Amino acid sequence: MNTILTVQDLTKTVTTDWGKKKTLLHHISLDIPSGSIFALLGPNGAGKTTLIKCIMGFMKTEPWHIVTSTSHIGYAPDTTQLFPYLTGYEQMKLVWDLHQSEVKKPRSQEAKKHLSSLLEQVGLDADNTTRVAKYSAGMKKRLGLAMSLVGDPDFLIWDEPMAGVDPLGRITIKNVINHLKSQGKTLLFSTHILSDVEEVANDFAIIHHGRLLYNWSMDSVSGSLEDFFAQTVKN
Q1: pLDDT tens digit string along 21-45?
Q2: Alpha helix segments (H runs only) across 122-193
Q3: Which of 3.30.1300.10, 3.40.50.300, 1.10.150.530, 3.40.367.20 would CATH assign to domain 1-72+155-235?
Q4: Rounded to two decimals, what is the model's pTM?
Q5: Which of 44, 113, 115, 136 pairs as cysteine with 92 (C-beta 3.0–4.6 A)?
Q6: How far apart are CA 152 and CA 155, in angstroms?
């Protein structure tokens, strides 16, 4: 099976405000298969976001630690920075324009259809005139996910996509994930909502205290993922 992302023996150490060294990740090695829906599991503070930031290049690592077979990546952080005075569609259009500028192929006439479709996928209305400032936390989260899809990336990385989202919003996001799976896209997402992982993921890894405890396919788990996770983290 082809691999879209390889993390090789990654250790990340930072200097605290008090001048002390703190190791956030310890010798992480991980392979993400192409076409996989891959869940990165762990309690709060386990190192999930730190690992994602390293993968995205937001935290410095040596080049050999992170190897990807594509540069076409869509990223949605835990909290997306949005322009509060724009509508959801206007925010999406801004991202679209930036993508078109990069490839120097203006196709603004296609924007309405494409962006409206993406907003519809995440349960938002392209014609809604409500400003982002008045969006709920769940609506902002879903808008951030839609923004990551604008460039039709091969590989998506989402940090806690279902955190702070109500049950209906979570169903919508799981439907989007299943749609990505049907398209053969690769998704790496972090979460601590184990029931959602059981429904959508092919593969998963468990990270705790900055160490990788387990990395395998969902088929390897007998019984509930919740019981497996609790037992793994305790040992």
Answers
A1: 999 999 999 999 999 999 999 988 8
A2: 137-148, 167-182
A3: 3.40.50.300
A4: 0.93
A5: 115
A6: 9
Residue with tokens 């790496």: 188
- Look up residue 56 and give its amino acid: M
* CATH 3.40.50.300 domain span(s) along the chain: 1-72+155-235
Stretch 139-151: mean pLDDT: 96
Q: List, as own/partner pairs, every contact residues 212-218 make where C-beta atoms lie below 8 angstroms and the sequence separation is at least 24, other chains included.
A: 212/27, 212/28, 212/29, 212/30, 215/30, 215/31
